[in-house]
Amino acid sequence: MSDTETLDAVAALVRQARRILIITGAGLSADSGLPTYRGIGGLYDDKLTDHGMPIEKALSGQMMANRPEVSWTYLTQIEANCRGAQPNAAHHAIARLVAERPGSMVFTQNVDGFHREVGTANLVEIHGNLHQLVCTECGRGRMVPDYAGLQIPPACPTCGGLVRPDVVLFGEDLPRDGILRLEHMLADGVDLVMSVGTSSLFPYIAGPVVWAAEQGVPTVEINPGQTPVSARVRHRLPMGAAHALGEILQRLDAGS
Ligand SMILES: [Zn+2]
């Protein structure tokens, strides 16, 4: 199948689907100019941090508990990298697909908050959101547009406790609520599973795609490079998210 034929076939599936599970990763935000880092630390690749430790250690839950100033140093760098970037056409396209199909869900690994910013309904940010801060003592939370002006590490204005972003650091568990929502979605039945801009390295990201493929549910992967699920999906679009989703929406609008 040529890419054009695949786009036609995927558009037909999207048109018929009432409940779509859309799994997204860093590739989605690449069109917003963000690096497609692995997890939260790939900005650093294999290099050691300025503190002489691997980024996985600097950005671990244990480091945040014991030496929060170290973790915050790198969180601040990551946030500075995202600052000024905006959601792109892919985020808007996905928000529209979900709005038009209320049984659908977006399950994202991204911590940039772009899906939330464009008002995506039924969203699970499984790794959290960099802009959501939470007090480790009293649990009070607040949203911040960026980290400008924050004292590092920040203290809770109410109780003085350590404040951290509500993100999943290395070595920490995924939020149970998000996993349960995904499980309920799959248990209730899905018509289509789309994996968009993710390298599918985590089992909880690849798992639903493989599960759907085994159940005979149509699956689509949109990602420029090959991933562990590439050989399992029914349709594969080797291209950027904004481009592919734009082509699909055009077909929906044209009614063809
Ligand atoms: Zn507090």
Describe it.
With 256 residues, this protein is an alpha/beta fold. It folds into two domains: 3-34 and 87-127 and 173-255, 3-Layer(aba) Sandwich (Rossmann fold), CATH 3.40.50; 35-84 and 132-167, SIR2/SIRT2 'Small Domain' (2-Layer Sandwich), CATH 3.30.1600.10. It is 39% helix and 16% strand. The chain has ten helices and nine strands. It has helices spanning 3-16, 26-30, 55-58, 61-66, 68-82, 89-100, 114-117, 176-188, 203-215, 241-254, and strands spanning 20-24, 105-108, 123-125, 128-135, 141-143, 163-167, 192-196, 219-222, 235-237. It has a six-stranded parallel beta sheet, with helices on both faces. The chain has a three-stranded antiparallel beta sheet with strand order 5-4-6, covered by helices on one side. α6 (89-100) crosses α10. The longest helix has 15 residues, at 68-82. The radius of gyration is 19 Å and the shape is elongated. The mean pLDDT is 92. It binds zinc ion. Zinc ion (ZN) is lined by residues 135, 137-138, 140, 156, 158-159, 161. Zinc ion (ZN) binds next to loops. Residues 1-255 form the Deacetylase sirtuin-type domain. Keywords: Metal-binding, NAD, Transferase, Zinc. This is protein acetyllysine N-acetyltransferase.
